[in-house]
Design brief:
Oligomer: single chain
Order of helices and strands: EHEHEHEHEHEEEEHEHHEE
Largest sheet: 5 strands, parallel
Radius of gyration: 18 Å
Strand content: 15-25%
Number of strands: 12
Low-confidence stretches: 127-134
Number of helices: 8
Mean pLDDT: 85
Shape: globular
Length: about 240
């Protein structure tokens, strides 16, 4: 059974969402704040969950601070939950390391769809041997294989969503991927559902590629989507 850590200070919402997740077959640990998680991280322990559902508006240590602490040690999928639906809030959460964003009030069907997509992605990228083993994709000095990415032979820390997005681009070099198609193929969601996720996740991936010295580049195609080009000449 897949284990989800749900951190939410609103008692009634925490109980309702927990029930939705448990009825869908997940094991849920629901907590009002991130104190226990921080204690575990400070002791050097593994996160120990398949996914974290994180309220970004926690009253003591806010969700962003907690998210940054998690990302120092783990690439566990994180689904941000927030009452803020403005563009800046979405971008900040994605830029600081969450894999997807869901606004309150929570719509159970959309919540379950996002949770399932994140867990499926993490499980696929972590597969070992056998027919389901992900094939290796390469372009320039970028190589993505079994649950990891290497640039110039050096491992690069990517979340499961970042890794799947990069693999999607690597499988289609020099081809423009429309935002609507990315949202459907990578996130498993129809067009128009918080599609800003695509833009910020691609920007985040681009920064990581550039910082690691990738010989490929992610280009914006105005009004359409994104394209992976390369390898490019280094000067």
């Amino acid at each position: 059974m897949q284990r989800i850590l749900y951190i939410e200070d609103d008692d009634s919402l925490r109980g309702a969402v927990r029930l939705v997740l448990e009825n869908a077959g997940y094991e849920v640990v629901a907590q009002p704040d991130g104190a226990r998680l921080l204690e575990a991280l400070s002791r050097g322990e593994e996160v120990g969950y398949h996914l974290i559902l994180l309220d970004m508006g926690l009253p003591k240590l806010d969700g962003t601070a907690l998210l940054l602490r998690v990302r120092e040690r783990s690439c566990v999928p994180v689904l941000a939950l927030s009452g803020q639906d403005d563009e800046l809030s979405v971008i900040d959460a994605l830029a600081n390391g969450c894999d997807d964003y869901l606004t309150k009030p929570v719509r159970p069907a959309l919540l379950l769809a996002k949770v399932a997509a994140l867990l499926r992605r993490a499980r696929f990228e972590g597969e070992g041997d056998g027919a389901k083993r992900p094939r290796v994709l390469e372009l320039g000095n970028v190589r993505c294989g079994k649950g990891e990415c290497r640039i110039g032979g050096v491992p690069v820390a990517l979340t499961p969503t970042e890794l799947e997005l990069l693999r999607y681009y690597l499988a289609r070099p020099d081809k423009t991927a429309p935002r609507s198609q990315l949202l459907l193929d990578v996130w498993g969601l129809p067009d128009g559902v918080e599609s800003r996720t695509v833009d910020e996740m691609t920007r985040r991936l681009r920064r990581k590629l550039e910082s690691a010295g990738a010989s490929v580049s992610l280009r914006s195609v105005w009004g359409v989507g994104y394209r992976l080009e390369g390898p490019c000449e280094k000067t």
